[in-house]
Design a protein that fits this description.
7 helices; alpha+beta; PAS
Length: about 270
C-alpha cells in the first residue's frame, strides 16, 4: 500500500512559519531570511536582521568557545544540532530557546544553508530557575531553623540540669540538717532517760523531732528520685536533639544532591 502525503509542502511550511520562530543562515553565518516570530522574540524587525552575523546573537563566551566552532563545522558537514540554547536579544537581555539547526542541501547533496527552528522558552527557564533557587534554600532554611531550635532546646535542657543540680545540693543540705536533728533527738532521749520522771518533757520533744526527721528523710528520698528522673529525661531530650541535628544535616546533603541532579537534567 502506497502512503501519500495528505498535506501539501506549502501548507506545512506555512504552518511552521506561523507558529514557530525561524531563521536561515548561509555558510558565512549571515542571516538570509527570518520570520516575524523570531525577529520579534529577539526584539528586531525582520529587515533589521538580514545580513547580521550569527555570532551577534550569541554570548561572548559562546562565540569564543570550541563548542561554537564545532557547531558550524558539523552543520557544514550536514549534521543537525538540537539543544537548549542561550541567545542575546537586541536590548542585551538573555533569551532561552529550544532550537534545532537543520542543514539545507541542494540537488547535489551539498549543504548551502542552515535553517534554525526555535521555541522561546525564556519564561519557562525563568520559572524553573526560581523553583530550583527556592528548593535550594529550603533545606538551608530548615537546617538553620532546626539548629536554632536545637540550640534553644539544648540551653533549656542545660538550664533544667542546672536547676536539678541546685535541687540536689539543697536536698543534701536538708539531709544533713535531718541527720543533725536526729542526733539532737537522740541526745534529748538520752537526757530524758537519765533524769527519769522529770525528763518526760524531753522525751516528748525528742519523739516529735525524730518523727519530723523521718518525714524529712522520706521527702528527701522522693525529691532525689524525682531529680534522678528529670536528669534521665533531660539526657534523653539532649540525645534526641543531637540525633535530629545529624538527620537534618544528612537530609540537607541528600536534598542538595537531588537538586544538582535536577539542574543537570534541566540543562
Amino acid at each position: 500500500m502506497t502512503i501519500t502525503q495528505v498535506l501539501s509542502t506549502d501548507a506545512v511550511l506555512k504552518a511552521l512559519e506561523t507558529h514557530l520562530a525561524m531563521i536561515e543562515f548561509n555558510l558565512n553565518k549571515e542571516v538570509i531570511w527570518v520570520n516575524g516570530n523570531f525577529a520579534s522574540a529577539m526584539g528586531y524587525r525582520p529587515e533589521e536582521m538580514t545580513g547580521m552575523k550569527h555570532q551577534e546573537f550569541c554570548t561572548e563566551a559562546f562565540q569564543n568557545s570550541e563548542e561554537y566552532q564545532a557547531l558550524w563545522s558539523n552543520l557544514k558537514k550536514g549534521l543537525k544540532f538540537q539543544e537548549k540554547i542561550l541567545r542575546v536579544s537586541k536590548n542585551g537581555s538573555l533569551l532561552w530557546f529550544e532550537a534545532t539547526y537543520i542543514p539545507v542541501a541542494d540537488e547535489t547533496g551539498e549543504v548551502t544553508a542552515v535553517l534554525k527552528i526555535a521555541t522561546n522558552i525564556t519564561d519557562h527557564e525563568s520559572r524553573t530557575h526560581t523553583i530550583i533557587s527556592d528548593l535550594k534554600s529550603m533545606p538551608e532554611e530548615l537546617a538553620d531553623l532546626v539548629v536554632a531550635n536545637t540550640k534553644e532546646s539544648i540551653q533549656a535542657v542545660q538550664a533544667l540540669q542546672n536547676q536539678t543540680d541546685l535541687i540536689s545540693q539543697t536536698s543534701k543540705t536538708i539531709s544533713h540538717i535531718s541527720s543533725q536533728t536526729n542526733m539532737v533527738a537522740l541526745n534529748a532521749a538520752i537526757e530524758a532517760a537519765r533524769v527519769g520522771e522529770q525528763g518526760k518533757g524531753f522525751k516528748v520533744v525528742a519523739d516529735e523531732i525524730r518523727r519530723l526527721s523521718t518525714n524529712v528523710d522520706e521527702a528527701i528520698d522522693k525529691v532525689n528520685s524525682n531529680v534522678e528522673n528529670i536528669t534521665k529525661e533531660a539526657q534523653k531530650v539532649s540525645s534526641i536533639t543531637n540525633s535530629l541535628q545529624t538527620i537534618i544535616k544528612e537530609t540537607q546533603i541528600k536534598f542538595s544532591a537531588t537538586i544538582t541532579e535536577f539542574e543537570e537534567t534541566a540543562k
